[in-house]
Every structure is written in C-alpha cells, then in structure tokens.
Amino acid sequence: MTAAESDAIRRIEAEAISSRFARGWHCLGLAEKFKDGKPHTINGFGQKLVVFMGEDGKINVLDGYCRHMGGDLSQGTVKGNTIACPFHDWRWGGDGRCKGIPYSRRVPLRARTAAWPTMEQDQLLFVWNDPEGKQPPADVTIPVIEGATRDDWTNWRWTEQIVHTNAREVIDNVVDMAHFFYIHQSFPTYFKNVFEGHTATQIMKGVTREDSRRQREGGSGGGGPRMLGNTSVATYHGPSFMIDELTYHYEGYDLKSILINCHYPIDENSFSLHSGIIVQHSDALPPAAAEATAEKLSAFILTGFQQDVEIWKNKTRIDNPLLCEEDGPVYQLRRWYEQFYVDVADVAPEMTDRFEYEIDTTRPVESWKKEVEENLARLDAAEATA
Amino acid sequence: MTVRSDERLDGAPMRPVRCRRCAGEVLARKSSWEQTSIQWTAEARAACTGLDEDEHGTCPALRSAIQEAALTGGIEVLDD
Fold first, then answer.
1. pLDDT tens track for A34-67
2. Pairwise CB contact (< 8 Å): B78 & A353
3. Is the ipTM of this complex over 0.90?
4. pLDDT digits (tens, 9 = 90+) for A104-162
5. How far is CA A167 from CA A263, A348, B59, in A?
6. Which residues contact A146 (CB under 8 A, 6 or more apart)?
7. DSSP 8-state assignment for residue A65
8. HSE toward the beta carbon, residue A158, CA cutoff 13 A
9. Which among A369, A370, A381, A371 is positioned nearest to A219, based on CA atoms?
10. Taking a contact as any Cβ pair under 8 Å apart, which residues of chain B between 17 and 46 contact chain A?
11. Looking at the complex, does the CB of residue B77 fall below 8 Å from at least one CB of chain A?
12. CB atoms near residue A263 (< 10 Å)
C-alpha cells in the first residue's frame, strides 16, 4: 500500500438491499399458537401470509390475499380443512387450491394461490421459503432437538419481537467475538467458526466477568453457586435457525441448555426475532429449579437481544467492514450466507466448501483482563466512598 | 449482493498445505501462531477422515501439517 492509499479516507459502502428473501426453513414460533382454529396473519418475506390449522390438524401457510377479489384470508374463518375468505366465502385448501365457492356451481380454472411447505418439529412451526418455488430438498433439514420433547428438560420459554433492520445484522454476530465483551458483558477466551454446506457454526468458550457480576449482584455477591463460565456450540442450519448447545459451568456442576436464536424476514428492512430456551434437569437442578432457571435465562437472552437492537438501531449498514486480525471471518460468513440468496443452480463451491477460522485470543484476553481489573478497582473505590 | 473479498488477505494470501495422512490439499493462513484459517475444497474434505469424530474440530493431521508448514516457511506467520 502506498502512503497516499493509507492516507485516504476509508469510505463505508453499502449496496441497495435486495428484496429477495432467503431460501430455507424459517421458524414462525411455537406451533401451539397457531392451533386455536383461527387464521393468523404473518407478515413475512415481503408479503402477508395466512397461517391456519384445518380439521385434519395440519398447519398450512398460504398467501394472505384471496385470488378472487383480494380479500384478506387472515381475517377469514377456518371451515373444515380450508380457509374461507371473509369477502365472498371462497374456500382455499392447504395445497393452495380453491376447494369450493358456495354460491357457484364451478371453481374457475387457475384457482390456485401460493402455498408454503410447512413442517412441525419439536413443537415449533417451520415454513419453507423459496423464491424459485421449489419444494424443500430432503437433505436440507433442521435437526431434531432431543431435549425439546423429553421429560427431563423444561418446556420452551419462547420470546419474539420485531427488529427494524435487515436480517444480515443478526447473522454477522456469528463471527463477532469482540462484541460479546463490549455489548453483552461476556468474556470470550476461545472462538472458532466453521462454515460447511448450509451450516455455519460458532464455538465459543468464556469466563464469567467479575465486574459485571459485581454490578449485577452488588458487593456482597448474589449468594448461591458461582458461575465460572460457559461453553457454546451454536450452529445456523440454513439462513435463519440457530441451535446453540449452551453449557453453563458452575462450581461443582454443569447446567445444560439449548438456546434457539431464529428469525424470519418481514421485509428487507425488518425481521421477527425469536428466542427459545430449554434447560435440562439434573441432581443440582431438579425440575422446579430448572424451570426457574429457564425463566431467568430467557430474560437474560432478551436483555442480550436488547443490547444488540440498541446497536442495530443506530449503526449503518456496511458492506466493506474494516477488519483487524483479531476479528472473525465476516467476509467468508457473508459468502456462506449468499448461497441462500441465489438460485440453487448458482450456488458456487466457495459458498459451501468447508472453511475454518480460529481466532488468536491472546491479545483480546490480555486487554479484557486489564479492563475488568480497572472496572473492579473503580467499583471498590466507589464503595469505599459510599 | 456482490460478495467481497477479505482485505486482510491482500498481500498475505492463503497458501496451499498438503496433509500427509490423506494427501488432501487445503489453503491455510496464520496471522499468528495461535490463529489459523483453513479453506477446504470438496475434494480435500471428502478425503479427510480426521473430522469424523468432531465435525467442528480441526483435523489433527492437518493441524500438524499446517504447523510444520509454518515452522519451515511453507506458510508465513504474519506477526512473527
């Protein structure tokens, strides 16, 4: 690089956001919510959708607008296995075909609307989005979460909220080690990414920050067992559904949990962000205590989301982040993510070939230790004068 | 969206490293002794058996090959 080049002002670049939405399985939340015999409105993938369960117990997702005169099906009524339009009672089946028009002898040709493939698994409802309109391939799946249906795990604690930014921001977190210290009061000590096929994984180990603990619990500490740190193996299966095997290490025992971090795009400038958590019972954590812990962790995750949202609300979109060597593989992650935004025929090997990146945490850990010590000294001083 | 390339690689690209166990060739880069990037190809991935037990791990044989390449100058360790 010449002196002139290194003196030049770095420009932030951002292309216009495409209104194409990712191909893949997207979770719409707990399936139970859609099983009340009523139609539900989902704003997703730049459209209005209707979600309804027919008499047969199958949950269906259709384009929200009736092909007859454009009525809003999500304001209609479930009749048998169809959704009936509130405007003229046209009946639409889960396969997208018009099954009947009570006032007409015949259903016209072309009476077919868009239907999204759905899947219910682990008490969650998934919908397959594909701009090419194809069915989900058999090898593109969401793994079964064992604990979700087992008696020795808690029930889901589920949250959802609308975030007003493009969904790429939440994906970028997969490779962003340093923000866990600065935004989430974590202390990563090990950090590695592996991208392969349609999965992107983050492996992170961390220790508990004494300064954050003191601020949370006050000078005396909160009592109870001390949390030493955690180990997290978090994998995106496709563009939007992350399963995090998250183990908290306490003095004398481990607490095992599964954290879901998932979203679906509402449009190119907003998405619905969901979190779910289940916690395993153990000798140290009998059922009631596990439920209470799940409740606490769920609140903790929401706090974490709020911390991200606060950044997202104010930051700018950046296609050319300027990275140091202790940052993660942002560009390689985005290259992986791009596979979901091109036609299947255009998915290039570099988007799916395995890529590994292990960060050298020596310098971050050194620097963060110092910062924590300084914070503790400040807290000591504040307490001494109080 | 156009996918851009990682500017950190400008002037310090990933270099080929061959594993001695399966002879698969990957691209590797080390910005320090503790940092490692590995770009696989489908061919190298299919040949590797070192990830069978832990798909998120690093193949131990490949790790040694990269370490050796770093020691013998086959790949540069940037902050060394």
1. 999 999 999 999 999 999 999 999 999 999 999 9
2. no
3. yes
4. 999 999 999 999 999 999 999 999 999 999 999 999 999 999 999 999 999 999 999 99
5. 8, 22, 33
6. none
7. B
8. 19
9. A381
10. 31-42, 45
11. no
12. 22
